[in-house]
Write a structure and sequence with these properties.
The protein has 628 residues and is of the alpha/beta class. Helix content is 44%, strand content 22%. The chain is built from 21 helices and 25 strands.
Length: 628
């Protein structure tokens, strides 16, 4: 909304003389205040009061106030309020984003907000029934941003009861006063930090928080007090920060760390003693707790709720979660190092329980939780250093005469635990945000093996590769697969991509296009573990799948379990109606085999025919088939 400025006729050199003179007079008055003999010795509050009074008197507004934005951007809170007619007031007032979304968006998107008709302006119209009415009919508003570094701290707000077209000198003056307040706040924060601890030895350069050394020093002070109080050590770890860095870039990860630090630093909590950054994505908070577990749990929950509010990064909003471990002095440990280990172990346990939660220290689970995250670290190393392998399990035609395809299955030979079942590390890959990277690794290894088979004169059958929901929903999946086919000179028909039902249940606008592009490359698509998810017939009908795989849980008790027989017959009938082929997984005996053959199942896979085997054994099997 562009509003006209009150400009006087231009002078000979093209500039309007009166507005320039007006602005110079405003600037002179501000400089006289700032450089006056007494101003530098005032407290921060007195400095801000003097600035508000001068601003209101110069611009002849009905009120001028300073508002601070809450840490998560959900509210504006009035801190200082001045009226030229009656002086300073300390009546607090709060505006909520939920009630005034357009106003809050305008403050965050524009450098400055001004309107001569706040009642009709769409950005400020919602204030009519609450704030504008309570402020005795304010008609015109001029809001200039106040910053804390590059973070929006709040606004300097000028208000008039009469419609007022804010002039260019008005806007420039308000901006100058807001910038001055920003500098005063920043300087005061620096002075406060300097007084607390020596900057070099106790300061984290990136976040401005104190560091691990300062945390340990403060804990030692608390423990050595003549009558030491009980206190809690809260250990925060940002969930999935590595995955965010990989997906969105390190700058986004840095912004998240900075914002979490700012929220913890600005937390207004009785009993809060110190906040420190103790690792790349880890923070600690010392809290003097009232020896009441229920009250402490409620306090921790409120802190997490504040941290989990969406974070604005550029043009997007990200919801980032944390896992929290809580250890108590002296209940859990009576020395610094032990208390640190206890809180960190509790945090590991929170992550193992699904993240986005808090856990109090529990000795019985701390060891296993830490071991689980050691395993996560080892999995990351295995992905980076070719520590995984791909095994192949043949899929047979129902007449058992032909090896028609095979399934690629990832295996991990752990350096100390030996071969781990996929059930032991695939859930870990999901929780750690590594599953998409694991999918990419398997796809590329399969392409390498297909190329190697061709070099040995072997005809590799189509290879089925299972993809996670994270990979399937990636809008760049088709491009990534195409690049692999091009790099290894492989035909699309040599790949079959499998996905579980839950991977396609989301209403994604990009999924149909992605699947269509894959099919255009000649790739076949199938639904894995059919019957265990929640896909609808309508979605199956409208997506280009050609095959269903019946989950082994429905096969293992065939033909003796009537429920499993009914479910399998239903799937086979539905597949015939949709024109889809069917693969039965987990076939282990002749009774299962004969029943499935009689019911018209197309393909069989299981230990009755072949167990998963390393690529060298699979190549040997292909060679034997060629000879026979």
């Amino acid at each position: 909304m562009t509003l006209p400025l009150c400009l006087c006729p231009p002078s000979a050199n093209g500039l309007s003389v009166e507005p320039v003179k007006t602005f110079f007079s405003y600037h002179k008055a501000l400089m006289q205040l700032l450089h006056g003999a007494y101003f530098g010795g005032l407290s921060q509050r007195k400095k801000l009061e003097a600035l508000l009074a001068l601003c209101g008197d110069l611009l002849k507004t009905d009120s001028v106030s300073i508002w601070s934005m809450s840490l998560c951007g959900a509210s504006l809170n009035r801190e200082f309020y001045y009226q030229p007619q009656s002086g300073h007031h300390y009546i607090s007032y709060t505006l909520l984003r939920a009630q005034h979304p357009l106003y809050f968006n305008a403050l965050e998107e524009a450098e400055i907000l001004f309107t001569h008709d706040a009642i009709q302006d769409p950005r400020t119209q919602s204030l009519k029934c609450s704030y504008l009415g309570a402020a005795s009919g304010m008609a015109s508003i001029l809001d200039a941003p106040i910053y804390d570094g590059n973070r929006l701290y709040g606004i300097l707000s000028l208000e008039s009861t009469e419609p007022r077209f804010w002039s260019l000198p008005d806007i420039a003056c308000a901006t100058a006063f807001a910038d001055t307040i920003s500098l005063i706040n920043t300087h005061q924060a620096w002075l406060n930090s300097r007084k607390e601890l020596d900057y070099i030895t106790h300061h984290d350069d990136f976040t401005g928080l104190q560091n691990r050394h300062a945390l340990q020093h403060r804990m030692q002070q608390l423990i050595q007090e003549p009558a030491p109080n009980t206190f809690a050590l809260l250990w925060f770890d940002i969930d999935r920060l590595n995955a965010i860095n990989n997906a969105l870039g390190g700058q986004v990860g840095d912004a998240i760390v900075s914002e979490v630090a700012a929220r913890l630093r600005g937390l207004l909590l009785p009993g809060k003693d110190m906040v420190a950054r103790v690792g790349g994505d880890e923070f600690a908070l010392l809290y003097s707790w009232p020896d009441d577990d229920a009250e402490l749990a409620a306090t921790v929950a409120s802190i997490m709720d504040m941290l989990h509010q969406p974070i604005d990064i550029g043009q997007q909003k990200l919801t980032v979660t944390t896992s929290v471990g809580v250890a108590l002095y002296p209940r859990d440990a009576d020395d610094i190092n032990s208390l640190l280990r206890c809180s960190e172990s509790a945090m590991y346990h929170a992550k193992a329980c699904g993240r986005r939660q808090a856990q109090f220290y529990n000795q019985a689970v701390s060891v296993s939780a830490k071991a689980r995250f050691l395993l996560e670290s080892q999995l990351i190393d295995a992905l980076a250093n070719q520590g995984l392998s791909v095994f192949y399990q043949p899929i047979m035609s129902a007449d058992l005469q032909t090896l028609v395809s095979c399934e690629a299955l990832v295996r991990w030979c752990h350096p100390s635990a030996g071969f781990l079942s996929p059930a032991e590390f695939l859930p870990l890959a999901y929780e750690a945000g590594l599953i998409a990277e694991l999918d990419s690794w398997v796809l590329e290894r399969v392409c390498q093996d297909i190329k190697q088979a061709r070099a040995q004169g072997l005809c590799m059958p189509p290879v089925a590769v299972n993809l996670s929901a994270d990979t399937v929903m990636d809008p760049l999946l088709a491009d990534k697969v195409f690049n692999l086919l091009e790099h290894y000179q492989i035909q699309g028909g040599q790949l079959e991509l499998e996905m579980i039902e839950d991977a396609i249940k989301e209403d994604s606008s990009t999924l149909p296009d992605t699947l269509t592009e894959l099919v255009r490359m000649g790739i076949k698509l199938s639904i894995d573990d059919f019957g265990t998810g929640y896909s609808s017939l309508l979605r199956l009908k409208n997506l280009p799948f050609t095959k269903l795989k019946i989950d082994r849980s429905f096969i293992q008790d065939l033909p003796h379990n009537p429920d499993d027989c009914a479910i399998t017959l239903s799937v086979l009938g539905m597949a015939r109606g949709l024109g889809l082929a069917v693969v039965a997984e987990g076939v282990e005996n002749i009774d299962q085999e004969q029943w499935l053959q009689q019911q018209g199942c197309h393909y069989l896979q299981g230990f009755k025919y072949h167990r998963p085997m390393p690529v060298s054994d699979f190549f040997a099997l292909l060679t034997a088939d060629m000879i026979s």
